[in-house]
Amino acid sequence: MVLLRDEQGTAPRDVVALAEVSKVHGGRVRALDGVSVAFTRGTFTAVMGPSGSGKSTLLHCAAGLDRPTSGRVLLAGQDIGALREPRLTAVRRRHVGFVFQAFNLVDALSVWDNVLLPQQLAGTRPDRAWAGEVLARVGLAGREKARPGELSGGQQQRVALARALAARPEVIFGDEPTGALDLATGREVLRLLRQCVADLGATVVMVTHDPAAAAWADRVLFLADGRLAGELHEPTAQRVAARMMELTR
Ligand SMILES: Nc1ncnc2c1ncn2[C@@H]1O[C@H](COP(=O)(O)OP(=O)(O)OP(=O)(O)O)[C@@H](O)[C@H]1O
Questions:
Q1: What angle do CA 130, 131, 134 make, to 5 degrees?
Q2: CATH architecture of the domain covering 41-61+85-248
């Protein structure tokens, strides 16, 4: 089972790369300050840092949801700074999946229609067989007709994950995807994200405040005051927590 779409027959090693990216909000707040970082295909990266350190801004710039004030962002081989709307939206819909803290499901639609919605918005023909497979993979086979409101928080986040996977994105961005879940349910979602990387070759970039969640990643990036403040490979929750203590001291 192969998740990644590769039209050119070549797969760049880095799915997302930021070069000297700065972002100034409202002409005053320098949320990112010259960040250069790459996200390698088939890896799971967690982004951590104190509140206000620029984590969400980094995620939004990397995903093409926000534009840097300066610097370049390459997403799925394209320099997205050069793209105007609606081309940028099209690239995002085609190559990026999102999982948010608040799930962001459409309550008026069934689970099945939620999962297919991004492809319908993108105007691509939904791959129904694959959608069924990803729903089964997240443990929701048989719940296709349910409305999100009838499901638990953990189940809703699994629908959101199936929705993110259904379009076979190059990269999945998670903004605190376990932030609204209890410990056990959050762990289940993290295990699924981990499996997406291991079994499907997905690339995952996840912002989190939780050292135990970050420990599921291959690498943890630390931000402080809009700058990279180091990284940990093969992290443990203890080492992540210790590094966070140093950053907030
Ligand atoms: N739209 C905006 N307008 C003005 N300032 C903003 C905007 N978005 C973020 N900021 C500011 O930029 C800085 C970085 O914010 P960002 O949300 O990226 O940090 P964060 O590390 O994700 O924070 P948190 O952990 O609290 O979510 C903060 O000082 C924040 O107040």
A1: 85
A2: 3-Layer(aba) Sandwich (3.40)
